[in-house]
Amino acid sequence: MTTVVTPDRRSIIHLVPHTHWDREWYQPFQVFRMRLVELVDQLLSTMDADPGLRFTLDGQVATVDDYLEVRPEARQQVEALVREGRLAIGPWQILLDEFLVSGETIIRNLELGWYAALRLGNVMPIGYLPDMFGHIAQMPQILHRAGIADAVVWRGVPAAVDRNAFLWSAPDGSTVRAEYMPGGYGNASGLLAVPDRLPQAVTRFLAESRAFFGDRPVLAMYGSDHSVPSPRLTRLIADANEVMTDAQIRVETLADYIREIHGAPSEGLPSWTGELRSAARANMLMGVTSARIDIKQAAGHAERILERYAEPLMALHGGAWPERLLELAWRRVIDNSAHDSICGCSHDAVVRQVLVRFAEATQLGEGVTDQALRSIGAHVPRGAWAVVNPSPSERTALIELEVGTLGDGARMELELPDGSRVPTQQVAGPGIVMPDLQLVGRDIPDLLRRRMHGRELFGHSLDGYRVEHVSGRPRLVLLLDEPAAPDELDVAELVDAIIAEADRAPDATWEISRTVSDRIRLVARVPMPPLGWTAIRAVEAVDGSVRAMTDDPVGVTGQGMSNGLVRVELADDGTFSLIGSGVTLAGVGRIVDGGDHGDSYNYAPPDRDRLVDRPASIAIRVLEAGPIRGRVEIARHYGWPSGMLPGGSARTDTDLLTEVTTVLELHPGEPFVRVRVAFSNRSRDHRVRWHIPLPRATDVSAAEGQFAVVERGLVPEAGHGEVPLPTYPAHGFVHAAGATVLFDHITEYELADGRELALTLLRSTGLISRND
User: Which of 313, 327, 378, 754 has the most other CB atoms within 10 Å of its CB?
Assistant: First the structure.
């Protein structure tokens, strides 16, 4: 008798129990961590009792680190589960927002998480990107260079991808296989909501998944935000598998699933190159770029001090490598790269912690930079300064320094090591006014003991003294910051001598006079080698040499500025024209204030908006008249509505007077103008943008991203209930139709109607997320 075995044609469901863990969000980190400890306690207990349970801990090692800091006694159990492959961790240290941090931060995040996971036993070699608000163009290259061949994504996947897998390529051609999660990282979170009806739920789930998975195995992400699996999970699955004829469920980690389908043929898969920023099937939440702008400023500063100053200068010019200090700094930056942290879509308490972390990272970076600079300074003779170039190319750039005067109003220049002169421009007058004190002689010793810290007194260096008698009264003149004072000074001997003088007249009233050597602030343009330094010293100017300027001196009038490369012409409405390189930008700097009834995720104008783009008054003054630096201040006063009417129907009729100051700065040899805008925000629920009219209409912009320049059109893809608002992030610059804007930090821009660049200065809203 022959038995024919019919092939099992049941659909395969790869069920991945997991949690998506927001380290901080609508509650602060420590509050969320207490919930994390409870969750992992329960998870480990369940996994200990049920050897069949497998779990994916959200692709970020921070969840393990944060747990073990509270439960260090659980390390061996965690390590055993990781080594067995039952608990999947990594490869990221923390699940980040890709657009709002630098490319270097992304690399450090992956590197830190990868090695941390290896130390715990194993790393999940998958580019798991479950809830990022879109994906950068070069992510496939970053993953590929790390040896990661697969990505798992949700938000941002365009409508052109019509199945669960596609080939995702970076601009350089690096390609990974990307698994798309239709419905997100919780597409199967409700599968066991009614355990007794699991077979029926599976039938429905398969029907809903068919459009993307077809007859292929289905990825079912069983989990959601801060969730833990049912302790009866594997028993329920086993029971269901016995009765189901149309499906079989396998409880796996995400790594198990990717490992199984890794060899699947790629022929016929859709392909996509570049960034993923479509809202076709999931909200993109593009408004986070302009939410909490103070966070973005702090991030840009911290990343720049580490990437461009601390590490390269220390590597080239410093001493012993400060590995631990730099690791601590980078950990602060990486902790803040979590999408709910850097995005600014969090509770006020979270934002305060984020700013503290960035401050600490900056302090560490500046401290390491100072170490490198001190190493350089040791090679500079006394009375000279080292000028350091952090750029990898030779440059001549403006510096600002404070020097002692030569007396008699003598003009000053800076001399280079080869004897050549660099002309200077004085930008601040001499002298520091310090009022005199009156003390009885016997109190003078107490003053010195209480106020002196080493050689420092009143914020200056005590370098000497003299005693005078004026109209029969004693006067003690303290000499501070004397340039001729020796580096090595016996401070104790100096103090003893002053006290001995005071003891000669202990009952007399002494006048205490403090003299600080006259100092002035200079600016100059100094040539420097790439990633190197040069020495300068202040010398008396030679007649006529100041007039023999370097190329393109800056000229400033009340009507504008020019340096021979670009010309700035001030307009009566507070805007300006910029002319250079055959391009004229007219009406630059128009400020537009409008209502915003949205939240930290999305901009939303009121039903009836009232835009304010004309100032009530304007004042222009010249701050510095060149020839090395020109600065003009434009002060505009606006009446901005105080807030929004209830329900978001319109803005209030009550206006608050707000002063906006714009400082324009021009240097010789630079074909651009530097702009700084400042104001104290008094209004609520509004958006403030700075406009740059373009020389011609265009339908494309190019912006710097993370290791890529990305071109974007006028209208993004929408389709999931989100208005296709064409606002985008620019990391270092944006260019359109002959106009380029450079940024200090991540900035939101829009190519408005193809005729203007609109840069968001501020979005002020009162809610994390608006449910209506």
Answer: 313
* pLDDT at site 432: 58
Side-chain half-sphere CA neighbours of 637 within 13 A: 7
The model carries a pTM of 0.91
Q: Is the pLDDT of residue 186 over 60?
A: yes
Q: List the structure tokens of 76.
A: 């061996």
- For the chain, the residue count is 772
Residue 353 CA to residue 487 CA, distance in Å, equals: 41
Confidence of residue 433 (pLDDT cuts 50, 70, 90): low
What's the sign of the alpha-carbon dihedral 146, 148, 154, 158? positive
Contact in structure between 401 and 352 (CB atoms under 8 Å) = no
Q: Which residue, among 278, 13, 29, 307, has the nearest Cα to 154 in the 3D structure?
A: 278
Question: In angstroms, what CA-CA distances link 483 with 461, 516, 766?
Answer: 10, 10, 54
Q: How far apart are CA 213 and CA 247, in angstroms?
A: 14
User: What's at 202, amino acid-wise?
Assistant: V
Q: What is the rounded average pLDDT of the residues 40-69?
A: 96
Helix, coil or strand: residue 95:
coil
Backbone region of residue 273 per phi and psi (left: phi > 0; alpha: psi in -120 to 50; beta: other values): beta
Count of C-beta atoms within a 10 Å radius of residue 648: 19
Residue 62 CA neighbour count, 13 Å, CB half = 24
> What is d(CA 54, CA 15) in angstroms, rounded to the nearest whole number?
10
Q: Where are the alpha helices (DSSP H) in 472-550?
A: 491-503
Confidence class for position 5, pLDDT limits 50, 70, 90: very low
Q: Give yes or no for a contact between 258 and 123, defined as CB atoms under 8 angstroms apart.
A: no
The amino acid at 229: P
pLDDT of residue 544: 53
pLDDT tens for each residue of 381-432: 988 999 999 999 999 999 999 887 776 667 889 999 999 999 899 987 655 5
For residue 354, the model assigns a pLDDT of 98
- State both tokens at 252: 């796996």
DSSP SS3 for 729:
strand
Whether 502 and 510 have beta carbons less than 8 Å apart is answered as yes
Contacts of 707 (CB under 8 A, 6+ apart): 103, 138, 141, 142
pLDDT at 188: 95
Task: Say whether 572 sits in a helix, a strand or coil.
Answer: coil
